[in-house]
Write a structure and sequence with these properties.
Strand content: 15-25%
CATH topology: endopeptidase fold (from Nostoc punctiforme)
Radius of gyration: 15 Å
CATH architecture: Alpha-Beta Complex
Helix content: 25-40%
Keywords: Acyltransferase, Hydrolase, Lipid metabolism, Transferase
CATH superfamily: endopeptidase domain like (from Nostoc punctiforme)
Largest sheet: 7 strands, antiparallel
CATH class: Alpha Beta
Order of helices and strands: EEEEEEHEHHHH
GO molecular function: acyltransferase activity
Shape: globular
Pfam family, one: LRAT
Protein name: Lecithin retinol acyltransferase family protein
Structural class: alpha+beta
């Protein structure tokens, strides 16, 4: 789907709608939108703050060292992958409030894969909830978690000379 206006995907899990967003089109997602992009073995999450910028918990998304909450370009956030907008009913905070909440944590460096990751961060910004459906899914399905771990390990072993991970 390459429309500049995302269309909700009705087959998304748990009554959550996802819409693929054409990053190269002219339309922008709403301020405070919860963005998702794929990485090797998992999905990476961020909050859209306008002007093609995203605040996200860098975590382990680009190196072997846990990164801080930071504001980056949409291009850097997407890392050459499609971007989706996550829609859930009744956010506690409107777009401007979510942006303010996201920016209030820039520089924080307390990333924890299972308890304080990029999805926890986005759900806190939008809903005031500290939760990660992705982590819950891996805890319920340990074989899926093992598979993800093996893919991440192979990615770590293929890292470049600069210490940056190969996508």
């Amino acid at each position: 789907m390459n429309s500049t206006h995302p269309q909700p995907q009705k087959n998304a899990p748990q009554a959550v709608l996802h819409a693929r967003w054409d990053c190269n089109g002219g339309a922008e997602p709403p301020l405070g939108a919860h963005l998702i992009t794929s990485r090797t073995g998992y999905f990476h999450h961020g909050i859209y703050v306008g002007n093609r910028r995203v605040v996200h918990y860098a975590g382990l998304s680009g190196s072997l060292h846990a990164g801080p909450v930071e504001e980056v370009s949409l291009t850097q956030f997407a890392a050459d992958n499609p971007v989706w907008i996550r829609y859930r009913a009744a956010p506690r905070f409107d777009g401007k409030e979510a942006v303010g909440r996201a920016r209030s944590r820039i520089g924080e460096c307390r990333y924890r894969l299972l308890t304080n990751n990029c999805e926890h961060f986005c759900n806190w910004c939008r809903y005031g909830e500290h939760r990660s459906d992705q982590v819950r899914s891996y805890l319920v399905h340990p074989l899926a978690a093992l598979n993800m771990g093996l893919r991440l390990l192979s990615r770590l072993l293929a890292r470049g000379d600069s210490g940056r991970l190969v996508a």
